[in-house]
Amino acid sequence: FSHSGKGEREHVPVLLDECLEALNIRPGLTYVDATVGAGGHLEAIRNRMGPTGKLVGFDKDKASLDKVAARLP
Predict the structure, then answer these.
(1) For the whole model, what pTM was predicted?
(2) Is the Cβ–Cβ distance between 29 and 59 less than 8 Å?
(3) Contact at 8 Å (CB) between 3 and 9?
(4) Interatomic CA distance for residues 36 and 49, integer angstroms
(5) How far apart are the C-alpha atoms of 25 and 50, rounded to whole Å?
(6) pLDDT digits (tens), the chain, 73 positions
(7) Alpha-carbon gap, residue 43 to 45, rounded angstroms
(8) Which of 18, 23, 37, 69 is the most exposed place for a label (fewest CB within 10 A)?
(9) For residues 62 and 13, what is the distance between their CA atoms, to the nearest angstrom?
(10) How far apart are CA 7 and CA 51, in angstroms?
């Protein structure tokens, strides 16, 4: 985590570039994030796959899923 300057902590996804490179994300495919957490990887995948892909996210913490769903409609 890092500080956003507003007294809040901002999530910094770990090894994001390496994950995105390994996934070789392409439009029109389906991707699964089985540990959504704060949504950093999920958001980056969504941004790369474009509107024709499908993204499914899972997490055992419903509060995390609710926060990410509100942030990334």
Answers:
(1) 0.80
(2) no
(3) yes
(4) 17
(5) 10
(6) 333 445 556 778 899 999 999 999 999 999 999 999 999 999 999 999 999 999 999 999 999 999 999 999 8
(7) 5
(8) 18
(9) 19
(10) 34
